[in-house]
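Preliminary data (for renewal application), glutamic acid complex.
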Amino acid sequence: MTFVGMIFSRYTFTMSKVRVRMAPSPTGYLHIGTARTALFNWLFAKKNKGEFILRIEDTDLERSDKIYEQDIVEGFKWLGLDWKGEIFYQSKRLDIYEEYIEKLLKSGRAFRCYHSQEELEKERGQQMVDKEAPRHICKHKLSVSASEQNGRAGIIRLAVDENSERLLTFDDQIRGRIDWEEKLLGDFSIAKDPRTPLYNLAVVVDDIDMQISHVIRGEDHISNTPKQILIYEAIAQAGKTPLKIPKFAHLPLILGSDKSKLSKRNGTTSVSEYKKDYLPGALINFMGFLGYTYSKEILSKEEMADEFELEKIHKSGAIFDIKKLNWINSQYIHALSTDKFKKMIAAKDVPEKALPMITERLEKLTDVADFDYFWKSPDYAKELLRWKKSDLETSLKTLAEVKKIIQDFDFNKDKNEFRKALDEFSKRVGDPSSPSGQDRGLVYWPLRAALTGKEKSPDPVDIVYALGKEKALERVSKAIER
Ligand code: GLU
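Predicted structure:
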């Protein structure tokens, strides 16, 4: 049975207890940290049979761009982080913010400040000298004269008691109790004007209006939380809504390999750059571990959700280890069905038998180019055919014998029979000085080179079987002709 949403919301959300949100600002491409935050919100919603919503925080018109918004939305879709219902846009909610701001102004909890930038800087400079927290203590909250207004529109600030002895406290679901001295906040700004809210106000209005139960976000927002708590209180005091503050959980930072904050300098930060190399499930699996430990290493987001608890999120920074991502990705590629894999690499003529040989070895999808000899004739320098313990002439002579073996061999027989034939032959071309009296390299090296044009590859016997007799012969002949 579902109930209709509470009266003070303009939406009819179902009355599930847990509702979380992802609230990206479209001021850059989807960042891996934002995707990780989205995943943790998604997991928490899933675990608690709650709802996960998407809100685009695009009130900063100068820095917001549709291109970034598209990239973020596409990125969430690619990762399978599905949200409930429509996407909310802050830019379409200006009437709502205005309503709240007017109410705050009327109640006196917010006021207009007419100080100039210069005056604010002077105040800050003095605070630096006095070794005080930088903040604005505004006397315009009490009264303001026409000359002080000086024809300016003024920005809107929350009135904060500069003499307060109160500690603003919240119980962070990950980090435990966090205290903040109210008086250190100063009369912080909440809007440029009633239709231009700033981040802290817009976020609180939306989280109230959308009945968000838990705010799960990066730890860089910890210092915003006390300000937001004051806004919740002010809105309640202004008689706008009952006081109901969500629970907060601040996720640990993601660190690059050098243990400083992940940035373009020490890692790839934008999700779209991972798309060509990584499977979405693998990236999700990897991101799940950025600040959490699950009972097994390879698991889907649904399996993660079963285990997920906010309290078990790590407190310390999570290191972005690309080697781990590559390993996880290799597991996902290996598990792909051959059909899916073929579609993914878009190479038409990959022999069926070659597919497992490739998927077993790939860490990144674009590395498939290293295996292109399965669908096109290799190109290489003749010198590659020379076995290192011999000369080119002997290597080619041996290859000519190998060609005969291939010609005469019945490939309906098991591949071990073919290997035996090559091994037998290698005894005859053997190097008497080697302990086994044979030189398998002289047989297998030129064969591998002829088939693949590479120094390293899967077992040449397997490659002959994957390519088939005809193609294998064609490549060996070409090598001899060179
Ligand atoms: N728009 C904010 C950001 O992208 C969201 C912060 C929040 O979750 O409250 O960082």
